Amino acid sequence: MAIDATEKGLETNIEESFLMSGYRKRILEGEASRLFKQYAIDVEQLFMFLEDTQSKSLQALEKSYGADYRQKVLNRICDQLKSQGLIHCLRHGVKDRGVTLKLIYNKPFTTMNQLMNELYRKNRFAVSRQVYYSDKHNNSLDMVLFVNGLPLVVMELKNQFTGQTVEHAVKQLSKDRDPRETLFKFNERVVVYFAVDPDEVYMTTELKKEKTKFLPFNRGNNGGKGNAVVYNNYRTYYLWEEILQPDSLLDIVFRFVFVKKDEIVDSNGETIGERKMLIFPRFHQLDVVRKLEEDVRMKSVGHNYLIQHSAGSGKTNSISWLAHRLAKLHDEDNQAVFSSVIVITDRRVLDKQLQDAVYQLEHKAGMVERINKDSNQLAQAINGETRIIITTLQKFPFIMEKVADLDRKKYAVIIDEAHSSQGGKTSTALTNILSDKTLEDAYEEDRIAEENMDNLDEQIVETIMKSGKQDNISFFAFTATPKPKTIEKFGTLGTDGKPHAFHEYTMRQAIEEGFILDVLSNYTTYKTFYQIAKKVDDDPLVSKKQATKKLAQYVSLHPHNIAQKTEIIVEHYRNFIRKKIGGRAKAMVVTASRLHAVRYKIAFDQYINKMGYDDLKTVVAFSGIVKDGEIPYSEPDMNGFSEKELPDKFNSDEYKVLLVAEKYQTGFDEPLLHTMYVDKPLSGIKAVQTLSRLNRTCPGKDDTFVLDFVNNHEEIKASFQPYYETTGLEEVTDPNILYDLQAEIEPYQIFTEEEVQAVNELEIKGGFKKSTKAQMQLNAWVDKGVERFKQLTKEEKEAFKAAATKYVRTYSFILQIATFIDVGLHKQYIYLSYLLRKLPRSNTDKDVYLADDVALQYYRNQLIAEGGIELEITGGVDLKPTSHGTGGAAEDEKVRLSSVLDKLNERFGTDFTETDFLSREQVKEDMLNSEDIQQKAKNNTRDNFKFAFEKTFMNFVIDRMNSNEKFFMKILENDDFRNFIMDDMMNEVYDEVNR
Fold first, then answer.
1. Cα 182 from Cα 533, distance rounded (Å)
2. What's residue 8's pLDDT?
3. Residue 607 has pLDDT above 80, yes or no
4. Quick one: average pLDDT of 383-408?
5. CB-count exposure of residue 359 (10 Å: 0-12, 13-18, 19+)
6. For residue 344, what are the β-bridge partners?
């Protein structure tokens, strides 16, 4: 029999697995299909479930509504799914005229309640293939999992043997599924969307076209991303054979999934809206929580667990889920295993998030108590058996004393190490007055104080040791970088007789999956930095206007010459870093002592004032008081605001550089932190924790940069080695390596000079993101290279990709140090950055490095700065369009107007004319003339501006009401029409203000 290697073959195998484990095969056709297209619910299955489990409730509603009660009930369920959300309705049912209809029954914790167990067994699990969901088109979904008629899981399946991968499934869900259709509306029908192929799984909980964000749902592969080879099965078998099994799916819906609500704050700190996210656990989160729960269930209380999860693992959610499940855990006699779960953390967001998540999971208040007063409050919470208690490290010794006295009770203690230095807490020694020291002495004194600091890990371990073995306590320690003592105390003994982490999510996997950035990829010592800058400066082709001269004037630096380093840091930041992350990139200077920090702050402010730079302000962070001569300095005095305000102040657009002495080197989360200047010896965990301040991701942040004045590559690499098998730390000392790579790439004949030139001309005009026409042209030019690439042998493909990727990485790295201007090299860099995005990917491919927008913007700016050289080559480009267009522009505007009108009338069945459309243009002009709107558009990202825009949009509409009542009434009465007009106008206003 021939092997079925198609997508259908994979689909059939997955379906068979579901049918063997409690799912029924369901084909939607005839009336069932018609109703599904209308309501996005399998109506027949829904009412079969309701009649089977809640017939009395339906009879009561029939009496109340009359003959067409089923239609009224269906309308009520749809209305509640829209207003309350799917997750709320699944957990708490739908209230209708004094009756609560349950849409789903969870598996009871015990077998004692016979009725609830019977109802749970009546859930109707169904699997459907090739589900058609709309009358407007003939699109279908590969697979949908229904529970009681509700389409909770959507799966798009691809198979490499047909030339398609999980990436095609991701694109299909993102681009081809309209989030305005009922089935795909956020938190109304579907809990999770999976993109699947035999090797990898990705998931999302909200479809938003090109803004859809998919996360990997993979088990990991020997410490990296993806999935390991499985004997005689697909690598992704776990999704259908384990995760989506009936009981597992119910467990996720009832005890994991929740809606996270975040305030949206503009650049002035003003709350302008609320963002909702449906949180579905990532694989390692689901895995660790379930495995910990199962181990406790088997072994009971008195065991310790080490959870080694990297930054970017989502520890806040993992701890929240674990705390809730341990608090609900019961033994075989239906007795609670733990009297209380005590969470020890300095993570500010954890208490609110944990309270919000637990309230959604339980729907009752009082389960979680934050200890924010004194030890009496803590004692009362422990004595009163509050289910979940959140407290800080400082109260840990008291907790150990208290629970030791209550040996009849049992406790789970979850220790969150990750944010131990949030807010810059330090030892007593580092808050003492430091006075009359040389820089050398000040460094030595602070170094000794740091070494003797009561390290969090050691403090906890020592407290536990002093208390002796506690059979009534289980410890769960979460850390990214455990010390030997921590592993020894909390680790689980392996077959080799040594203690190991109970569960791992590695730094390497977090980097490869894109949850954190690799801080070593652009790490450079000052020696390397100087060599590159010097070589570029000595190149006679380099413009003398460039600021790199400032960077390369010191062949060697005196260890304590702060003025020299200040000049280098300021000039480097202003020339190469500040435009990163959309002009919001920030830097940290790590100084050797508190006295160093004080002198750096003074030197920075003096140099900035001398140069007249009004776009760079600094803040300093250190503990206690430092006397330099007779002058006492403190952090609040130097900054002009309190210590508590520093994180928020630094997050604002006002401050760009943070100068630190010990504070904020660990546990400080600022995603806008892009670059670090290190002027302090670092090694071991301290090096990992300090440099990792840069690894947080945010939109627009594609890389990081470290300039180290003190340490060397070998020391830093050795520090990271235990936590991540890194290969990213390579020294690039000679920019001329680019010519060698260029010579490696050219013989493959993948591209022509004409193609490179065309792509660059499109880039100069503003980049393909600026217009759909440019994007179409860009694809046409790059596709020529893609087709030639496909003709290469497998070995040639790999060699070309490796050389091209190294070229782009190396050029980008050098671009952060020096303005290395070779027109040919830069053009090739731009072209290859786009080509690499489009080349077919193989299973062995690592993620290619893609040039960030700042590098591309640099190119555009360079052309302006260098005057005629490039303009001759490109044929003269209008670098900045004027606001008064020519006749051609007016013609374009006419086409745009006509096109938008056609779309509007076709979609909404209206017959608006160009005269009607002018009413819309008048509203837009009103908004463009509003100073408030202009300020908000200039000072916010597009997403944040959207919230402010939506708040004021209706005011402008109502002001214009009398001018065209027919058009504006349509906006007032029809939500979809209003949203269409509003989204379209919001983008136009934002673009025009920021042009």
1. 57
2. 73
3. yes
4. 73
5. middle
6. 391, 415
What does residue 234 show for φ and ψ, rounded to 5 degrees?
-70, 150
Q: Name the nearest CA neighbour of 984 among 909, 896, 883, 911.
A: 896
**What tokens were used for 133?**
């969901």
Rounded distance between C-alpha atoms, residue 227 and residue 198, angstroms: 10
* CA distance linking residue 92 with residue 104, whole number of Å: 9
Torsion sign, CA atoms 201, 205, 209, 211: negative
Strand, helix or coil at 496?
coil
612 to 139, 580, 639: CA distances (angstroms): 61, 22, 20
**Letter for the amino acid at 847?**
D
- The contacts of residue 693 (CB under 8 Å, 6+ apart) are 588, 664, 665, 666, 668, 670, 673, 676
Q: What residues contact 895, with CB distance under 8 A and at least 6 apart?
A: none
- Amino acid identity of 400? M
Residues forming a β-bridge with 341: 388, 412
- Angle 873-874-875 from CA coordinates, rounded to 5°: 95
- DSSP 8-state secondary structure symbol assigned to residue 302: S
Of 521, 523, 547, 548, the C-alpha closest to 533 is 548
Run of H or E residues at 745: helix 737-745
User: How confident is the model over 334-366, as pLDDT tens digits?
Assistant: 888 998 898 888 766 666 666 777 777 776 666
Q: Tell me which amino acid residue 663 is.
A: K
Q: Is 792 helix (H, G, I), strand (E, B) or coil?
A: coil
The packing angle between helices 942-959 and 914-928, to 10°, is 120
Model pTM?
0.76
**Pick from 275, 72, 273: which is nearest to 186 by CA?**
275
Residues present in the chain in total:
995
SS (H, E, C) 534-557: HHHHHCCCCCCCCCHHHHCCCCCC
Amino acid occupying residue 337: V
Report d(CA 291, CA 277) in Å as an integer: 26
Backbone φ, ψ for residue 581 (5° rounding): 50, 45
Q: What amino acid is encoded at 399 in this protein?
A: I
What per-residue confidence (pLDDT) applies to 71? Answer: 95
What is residue 711's three-state secondary structure? coil
